[in-house]
Design goal:
two-stranded antiparallel ribbon, flat, alpha+beta
Length: 73
Amino acid sequence: MIELRVYMDGTQVSTARFDDPAEAQAAAERWTELPGFTCQIDDPSYHHAPDDILGGETDLVPGDDLVEGAGPV
């Protein structure tokens, strides 16, 4: 899976995913023909293994008690 991120004047305006890197490249070329647009193509599998667990970080330590809606106590 290849991810294409499209930026207009430095602000991300679109994200698309492609199975074929050539399709991602062709889409990026079409976007960058427009004034002010740049693209970044990335292969997320290069950065993360299939078994990686991707999630937010937490300050919780095993054994912390939680009060619903209040976070760690």
